[in-house]
Amino acid sequence: MPKGQPAVVPDDGLTTRQRRGRPLLLVHTGPGKGKSTAAFGLALRAWNQGWPIGVFQFVKSAKWRVGEENALRVLGASGEGGTVAWHKMGEGWSWIQRPAVGDASGQETNEARVREGWEQVKRDLAAQTYRLYVLDEFTYPLHWGWIDTEEVISVLRDRPGTQHVVITGRNAPGPLCDVADLVTEMTKVRHPMDTGQKGQKGIEW
Amino acid sequence: MPKGQPAVVPDDGLTTRQRRGRPLLLVHTGPGKGKSTAAFGLALRAWNQGWPIGVFQFVKSAKWRVGEENALRVLGASGEGGTVAWHKMGEGWSWIQRPAVGDASGQETNEARVREGWEQVKRDLAAQTYRLYVLDEFTYPLHWGWIDTEEVISVLRDRPGTQHVVITGRNAPGPLCDVADLVTEMTKVRHPMDTGQKGQKGIEW
User: Fold this and answer.
1) Nearest CA in chain B to A68
2) Strands, E, within A13-131: which ranges?
3) Average pLDDT for residues A71-79, to the nearest whole number?
4) What predicted TM-score, i.e. pTM, was given to this entire model?
5) Which one of A129, B116, B135, B168 is CB 3.0 to 4.6 Å from B28, fit for a cystine?
6) Is the confidence metric ipTM above 0.85 for this complex?
């Protein structure tokens, strides 16, 4: 809603212009569909503003999000909007040249990879590499305790500039939601798989 | 979830392959954000499959969705995925050459325009013009009674081929949800405007 009226005008000494430029933390959580999809839809707006976008895909399977990835790569390379950097844990992060840590045990590997991803996010936030960060499925390592939620909150609170961050996934930790500017919960009302519908190309991936 | 297992295998005589090709009706409703955004994110997957996509934007303001529209137009013209046709009620539908009906009264005009949009959707469904239809904010004219929900249900039930339809907006009528394959409700847990945050470019539009 471009012209939406805030319910409250805060007593924070900021001008409207300053409030329009405030960095936002958005959380898409809940058991329903559309959490990541809405984050990538948001990336279309950011692209249209000419913003550099960084996607960090904290999921194992490289098959996931292939449609969104291809679309955002084409957009990023079109020369018409912002740039897009798409980082995938599933294939090993692109910036890591050595083999992943802890290959003997699947879980160790994944935990180490997740941590590598978060370390890169921290470096990029400090360097203000992107204007929009999509931390896709990032709630899971927080929920599992692989990454400390308090550290994430602290890093996000202190991030410089106007860097917007969208975090997606089920079971977003309460303390993270408490500091977010927008929390949307996607609730499943009915899902095709409940009645035996199979996942479909173009819809599920 | 590409490899998700259905909770139930229906006794409908269809093979898995047939179930994978079934036309779906998806509804994104609820008071939270991300309803339309998730629909446009879904369009990225459809685009990546090479599907022709038709967007029907049942909203007045042409300013809305400008990011998504520009992005999908660039994608549609890239020659790499599917095509994109973007139809806007706000500027008068593109296929209408004559002036809109009922210009003397704002509401009449909008109601007439909404009906023109739905008539075109019906023509396109009959002709199987698109593989994915995004009927953005289409729940409102249903909710207001401008378009008969039972007629929409009937047209969608009888649509030929494998045409997927996504309908977005608050207050989706119950009977529509009852026949949908997927209904996701977006719930507002916290919104920046609650604390006086202003809408921001790249985030809200």
Assistant:
1) B44
2) 25-29, 53-57, 84-88
3) 95
4) 0.81
5) B168
6) no
